[in-house]
Design brief:
4-stranded antiparallel beta sheet, two-stranded antiparallel sheet, 8 strands, 22% strand, globular
Length: 177
Amino acid sequence: MHTEEKNEQNIRQQEAVHRLHECCTEENLWRCIAEFQNTRMWTASGLPFQYKLKVGRNGRFTKELWVDRREDSKSLAWSSVKLAFHSLYDAEAETSQENIECMESMKHTDYTDQTDQAEGTRIRKYHYNKKLVLRPKALGDIRGISYIYALFYRFELIEVPEKSREKMNQEPSEAIE
């Protein structure tokens, strides 16, 4: 990727993250997912990965992330990402006591329910509140949670312990292949 294209991509990514922080909705989370595809990231254990979104018949992205980790690709469903997202903010979310203890600032987060006038659907808008999440499983027993944890860290939705942060903040030249 050329330097100019990379700079434009970084700007789009920063704008998507900013929008997510201003209005913490599934729609803005999806924008971040779309903007960060093909971006190298690392799990909390330091394993490099990236993901792609495929385009469906309707010309839109499918709601499935294809995680490219070495020679294998694994699919990660959008519903799993949403489940983890809601576990961050919903006081009512089904979360075990062990997981609640792992989320140090697990306080009730304010939200408002709004109706989308165009579609007539309810939208839950969370008020941004970054939490320290000590380990991926604290978000729930969700398939692909180690990748989702890395995404949420990259989107600045969560804080992670220093040891994990060191592994997740590697430069491309430091990547473990």
